[in-house]
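Chapter review. Work through the record for Pimeloyl-ACP methyl ester carboxylesterase before attempting the end-of-chapter questions.
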Amino acid sequence: MDVTYEATQREIATDKGALRYHEAGDGPPLLLLHGSGIGVSGWRNYRGNLEVFAEHFHCYILEFPGFGVSDPVPGNPVLTAGSAVTRFMNALEIESAAVIGNSMGGVVGVNVAMRHPERVSKLVTIGGVGPNIFSQHPSEGTRLLQEFADGPSRDKLVRWLEAMVYDRAMVTEERIEERWAAANDPESHKSLAAMYGSKAFAAQQQAMTDSGVPPYWSMMGKVTCPTLLTWGRDDRQCPPDMAMIPMRLIPDAELHIFPKCGHWVMIEAKQAFERVVLEFLLR
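Structure tokens for Pimeloyl-ACP methyl ester carboxylesterase:
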């Protein structure tokens, strides 16, 4: 199976611009949703896992609007990502799919599962879902993102990358340069600043307070599909105490915590993550 970037890249037109994605494998549909962060993309999140999952599933790695790959759309990146999932599924006539979501992608997956339960058959989240209970808010990783969003530099990128993993040896020069090049894309930085810039972040927090609308995590009892919450024990972006609320509220949820692992569970605990997730999805 050829799972290179060139062999798997695809594009589909929608009424709000082109959505780009990577496709591989046969079987039931599996959507892989990426997180936020500096120089992020779906391909960088999941390229190492695609071949394993494509042996069992028809995989789609969706690139969210506004991160420098799919066409940008106006609005909050988390909200536009949610609508992009349903647009994407409609365009490809995917009635229902299993979903894997990393960090922000997990939040997006939860929201799609709550609003359109018929579209999500099973859900796997990788960190990110729920509120901070015992840990500081914003977290160390989020503070480092804010510093970068307010004034980008290569040194700030390296500090953030090192906070994403347990083993700093994973922060290779190649990974640094790849992320730095992607972070210089205007649309990518625009989305990052809209989520993590100091002023934008403060405005979002105030807007949530003023709106009177309950936070999404307080309504996770509406997630009806079987859900696997995965977490790195040493996650400094989304500390594992966040898992307590979704584990309690989602009716059919289970939690797996990986030791000696940071935020990028699918990368840093690759083989163990793939084994646990495949068992859950194929069960």
